[in-house]
Amino acid sequence: MSNIKAYRRKDGRIGIRNHVLVIPSTLCSADVARMICAQVPESVCLNNQNGCGQVAGDLDITIHTLAGYAANPNVHSVLIVGLGCEQLQADRLETAILAREEKPILKVVIHQEGGIANTVKKGVQLATQLVNEAGLINRETCSLSDIILGTQCGGSDPTSGLSSNLVLGNVSDRMVDLGGTAIISETPEFVGAEHVLAKQAINTQVGQQIIDIVKNFEQRLASVGQSLREGNPSPGNIKSGITTLEEKSLGCIHKAGTKPVMAVFGPGEPITAKGMVVMDTVAYDVVSVGDMVCGGSQLTIFTTGLGNPIGSPVAPVIKVTGNHQTYLKNHDFIDFDTSSSIDGTKTVEQLGEELLQLVIDVCNGKKVKAEEWGMTDIAINHLCTYD
Amino acid sequence: MKKAVLIDIADNVVTVTEQVFSKETVAYGNDGQIVTALEDIPAYHKIAIVPISKEQAVVKYGEEIGLTTSKVDAGQHVDVHNLASRRA
Lengths: 387, 88
What we know:
The complex is a heterodimer of chains A (387) and B (88). Chain A is α/β, with parallel strands linked by helices. Helix content of chain A is 40%, strand content 17%. Chain A has helices at residues 30-39, 56-71, 90-100, 110-113, 116-134, 158-177, 194-199, 204-222, 235-240, 245-252, 285-294, 324-329, 348-363, 369-373; strands spanning 3-8, 14-15, 19-24, 43-45, 75-82, 105-109, 140-143, 148-153, 181-184, 261-265, 275-279, 299-303, 317-321, 336-337. In chain A, the strands form three sheets. Chain A has a seven-stranded parallel sheet with strand order 10-11-9-8-12-13-14, sandwiched between helices. Chain A has a four-stranded parallel sheet with strand order 4-3-5-6, sandwiched between helices. Chain A has a three-stranded antiparallel sheet with strand order 2-1-7. Chain A starts with a strand and ends in a 14-residue tail after the last helix. The N and C termini of chain B lie far apart (36 Å). Chain B is mainly beta and 88 residues long. Chain B has strands at residues 2-5, 13-16, 25-28, 33-36, 46-48, 57-60, 63-68, 77-78, 83-84. Chain B is globular and about 35 Å long. The chains are: A alpha/beta (387), B mainly beta (88). Chain A binds chain B through residues 157-159, 161-162, 192-193, 196, 229, 238, 240-241, 243-247, 250-251, 305, 323, 342-343, and chain B through 5, 7, 15, 17, 42-46, 60-61, 63-66, 78-80, 83-88.
């Protein structure tokens, strides 16, 4: 059964949530944006620390990321909260979003309204208006084939490679068989396993792209005198039993399942392919989940051996662990336990089927624990320092 | 009997699924294979199932995960003290 009930957007894509997203165009208006959101509980605020004081390359990344979040099909409409003097003017952000997708966008600017109280009052009015409009739209029967599933691992321990990533790979395969898309990202966590992932590519060109994005990542860091091995594996990974980055990566790539990798996309680039795809992102979880969301992923399955509670403001993040102790300790933020594949009481196939059913339930509106807690942090990548 | 997971037939380490104490026997694989722990092995850590010489490949998932930095005996804990990435 591959039908779900979702929101059909103007461009034909489907959303499994119907968010009103409040975006401060700059850090200077971020607190005011949060004040607006606090008074409109059905809205959600993006934590934007950038938007001014940035060199052009960094401002581009900021605009690309914010517009990507706004353009995700889980977002019904946007309220931009600007200061008035910033590099990323509200109009400029609006234009960038509309270039990605047509949707209702309203703006409120502190210098135009005059003062915080006036801005908050106007912002609350506008956000409430958008929430009311969003409430008029109903879910309709749609297909899982229109879903782009993000896959992620974070706070990994050896159970990730033994159990949870295998189950996630099984779900990736099922999504592909149903005509949908699954993304594997986090390029540093291909290091040592890129040749294995490249063998899964649909052709030698895509295989070479996989090898190249890993090489380029290491070279970019080397060119500024840094090594990604300094931070990866993390202290938690090592203490839990993952000794080298290669060992970690070989466990990570199981998330990609067994279906051919069809294409490689850049960070936050709109996903336009069906099947299994790679997105070239950093491994920092909040950023890589964010980049997949910016690419159009409506939900993410995130495996965590040690327990990572992050979510996303715009898309449900289903938390999965293969470590039963972790599940027992942290069950208030973990949605699914795959540890029965280690003790043999269930097979990877059985767990994959159960996890896919959870995906369907979440698509139909069931909240994941990260949503219930209101986990909405984002992080925007950088080229260099602020100016 | 403690248990460990053998992921690939080419592996020279297995991953224990619970805390193992020195001198305990650990069962792994589908053919009744066992190894005796020479030291304590924390849950989900690696134990060598064959001797591995210094600067030889440690194999898990059927692939090299790094090189030993000292000689390793069967039953020894394989971790940061005796295993490092080849490219490190």
